[in-house]
Amino acid sequence: MNDLINIENKNGKLMVSSRVVAERFEKQHKDVLESIRNITAENSALTNDYFIESSYKAGTGKSYPEYLLTRDGFSLLAMGFTGAKALGWKLKFIEAFNKMEESIKSATIPEGKYLLALAVLESNKVIEDQDRQIKELIPKGIFADSVSASTGTILVGEMAKILKQNGVDTGEKRFYAWLRENGYLIKRKGTDYNKPTQRSMEMGLFIIKETAVAHSSGFVSLSITPKITGKGQIYFVNKLKPALALVASE
Fold this sequence. Notes:
This protein is α+β, with helices and mostly antiparallel strands. The chain has two domains: 4-118, no CATH class; 127-207 and 225-244. Helices cover 43% and strands 20% of the residues. It has eleven helices and eight strands. The chain has helices spanning 18-24, 29-42, 46-49, 71-78, 84-106, 130-137, 142-148, 156-165, 172-181, 198-202, 230-240, and strands at residues 4-10, 13-17, 51-57, 63-69, 113-117, 154-155, 206-214, 220-228. Strands 1, 2, 3, 4, 5, 6, 7 and 8 form an eight-stranded mixed β-sheet that branches. A hairpin with a 5-residue loop joins strand 7 and strand 8 (220-228). Helix 1 packs across helix 2 (29-42), helix 4 runs antiparallel to helix 5 and helix 7 packs antiparallel against helix 11 (230-240). The longest helix is centred in the middle third of the chain and has 23 residues, at 84-106.
């Protein structure tokens, strides 16, 4: 399933289409519309503040009804959705609204539609106190000594160059392929492609860099770039070139 959630900025209000909600929660759009109408029937004031009537054109050119939901409108509607999958999507929608609010506060962004990639919500964590972790976890060797002096992260392509310089016959494309085949990056085609797996994030090998990219059409997309941590750099060198790893003296 597509993990992109389309959030719209309408006169300063962040909204999501009822069609997006229906698709993500695997429901018929007509059933979602009926649920919204049942809610607004009990309190008509919600129509303006929580659920805004709208319409969209299908491929045939015919117009059909939809609703635009504010954060509170979505929360009211989603209360009725149950199940393990439903809980996961509720969290993703809430995170989508939060991300958009943060983007608007941190930058001047044109109104319009925004695409937020959410397949790796839990992976947006920066490793804290990396100096201490490097000192505790890396072996003492030629490569290890050079990395232990830095707390920086590097791109996958830069890691491939380091491996090449240290005798590993690889390049950026081949290293990406190796990471996917060995379970460090997601190899499933789609929005998650080449993103760190949960396993590699939990091991502290990667962090995620998010960059808002403004397009001439008014779209602002969120670019997700995996970066290898100092711990990850040591790990991959030791994994691919064991001879470089010198056991630390006690």
